[in-house]
Every structure is written in C-alpha cells, then in structure tokens.
Amino acid sequence: MNKTLLLIPGPVPVSAPVLEAMAWPMINHRGPEFAELLARLERGMRPLFGTEKADVIFLGSSGTGGLEAAIANCFAPGDALLACPVGVFGKRLIAIAKAFGCTVDVLETEPGSGLDAAALAHKLKSDTERRYKGVLLTHNETSTGVQNDMAAYAPALRAHGALTIVDSVSGLGASDFRMDEWGYDVVVTASQKALAAPPGISAVAISRRAWERIEGNDSSRFYFDLLKAREFARKGQTPWTPPISIFYALAVALERYHAEGMPGSWERHARYAAAIRAAFEALNFRIFSAPGAHSVTVVAAVPPGGVEAANLLAALRERYGVVLSGGQGDLAGKIVRFGTMGDVGENDVLGAIASIERALADVGAASSRGAGVAAAEESFAGLTAASV
Prior knowledge:
single chain, alpha/beta, Aspartate Aminotransferase, domain 1, Aspartate Aminotransferase, domain 2, 2 domains, seven-stranded mixed sheet, four-stranded antiparallel sheet, 14 helices, globular
C-alpha cells in the first residue's frame, strides 16, 4: 500500500514533533499554564503579521471563523463594502458580509490575475462620498493559485480611509506581510496552512483603528465577539473552552517556524512553487495564474489537452498515493492544484512530479517521461545557487 503524500492547499502535512504535542496532558484553560502558552503564541505570531501595534486574538475555529469574526465585529447591517475577490475564497468573504446584512459592491478581476492596483485606486477615488465603510481583500487565493501584491494597494486604501479586512489564511508565514507599515486593519490567518499545524485555530490581528470601529458597533455576535475575546485575552484566557491540544501543536509549529526563520520560510515556499511551475510547463500543463501574480503556497495548472483533471487526480491518488487538489467553483474539473505548505521536502516535490509523469501516461497523455523532474531539479539548482 502506498504511503499517502498530501500536497493540497491545506490542511497540510504536519511534522512528528507537532503531532506529538497534541498528546500532552490537558491543563486548566483558566490557569497560569494556559496564560503562558497564549502569551508565547502571541509573541510568536506578531512578526508574521508584521505588527508591533495590533492585538493578536486566537479563536477556536477554522480560518473562515476568523473571517466571520472580522466581518461581524467591524460592520453593521446596511454598511456598504467593496469586495475585491480573485477566486472562491474572496467570494466567500462576500457571502459572509451579505449574511450579516452588508451591501457589497464587487471589483471584478480576470480569473488567474491579481487585483490591479490602478483599478482599485480608481474605484476608491470615485467613491467621493466615502460610502464604503470597508474593503475586503485576499492576500493569497488558493482556488486560482494567485497572490496579490498587498504593498501596492496600501496607498490608495490609506487615502480613502475605509477599514480593511485581509484574508491571509493561506498567505501569512509563506511570504512577507507588513501590517503596520502598509496600514491594514484586520488580518486573518489559520493554523493549518504555512504554519504547518493541524486545523482548529484562527489568529486575527486587529489594529487600534479597527478596535475603535468594533467598540462602536452593536451588531449581533456571540461566540465570535472580539471584544469579549480581547477581554479574556488580557487575562491570559479565551472566552470559551479552547482546543488545548491544537494550541500545544501550534506552539511547537511556531518554534520550528522561527528556527527556520521567516526569510527561510519565504524562500522555501517560493522555491518549491517555482520548481512545480517549471515541471508543469515541461509536461505541457498551462499555469493558471498570470505572471507576476503567482502564489508561493499553491500552483494551479490546466492539464494537457485531452487529459481530464479528475482522471489524473484519481490516478495519482489511487495508484501512487499522491493527493493533489482539483478546481473549485467555476474551475471544478478544469485545473489541478499542487500545494507547497507543511512538512514537505524537495524530495517529496520531486517524487510527486515523477508520479504525475507516470499518471499522465496512465491516462493516455503524450508526455516526455522525466521532463518534469528534470525541469524541477534545474529550477531547484538555479534558485538554490541564486540564494547562496
């Protein structure tokens, strides 16, 4: 039986030390041990967010829970928001906002492209009455393999003044983010992506400006009440029973992350993504994301002509134990997605590419056996040499 190699955009492979941490004994979540654990996690997360000023709040939820908390606490029914989706998860932010009664205008982007900074600036400049109370943004979009240039949007957003909500669930930790410098207000991430921990915790960084909005907003919320979360965080607690085992795991994952160093993590994710793109292109796939907008945490690609994505994914999974993702929404059945996050090494990437070559032959595709692995190895060698 083949050992499964999980290479999806999350949850991701988790190292043995992180998994072992979940077997530690339970502690009192109202006691000093948990308070110390929570403080250690906050210190560890601040550099990833790029903040010294914001509060970092931990919630027992997936990333979607963190995003719901951001919307529910910052906005009230009837508030007008501008959403800038570049894929399925950007559209999920829209759905959350509408569920809480907000009205949402959408700045559309061509699938596979990143949000255009000039288009955003024009849209915000045309809002002369400052109707938009908030702007919803995605740092990294796993459904399309797109990463947005968050630094490029900051000047126009600051000039307008709307509160900004950023989904960085699959971006934070894998690439540079500077919350304070760029002026973002609420940034959300989760444990099961670049941090390489199991799912179950979302982390929400909240600026002083956002707290002012939250304090003045009396719209309904309960479990995801960030004011209550802040109140308890100041005592070293969470309002509700936390997933203690996942907190343990995240603490070990953060220690491992910082042992590698943030620049090391950024370089590793970029190096893997570049090698995967090179391999896909050598095997006649078409990279779905546009040049200049490539994600470092997932590569989305259209299979060669005549190859059904579902058949290729099934062959990889059933015959070779390699699990990639398919497309979502309008891209279902049209693309494959290869994740770079988690406890994954270069040999895992190369092995998965070799399996893709074999699976292509199994589904009847004409491809040059070995071309993908050779292209990936060349990419690894070139990027490694360039980084020394």
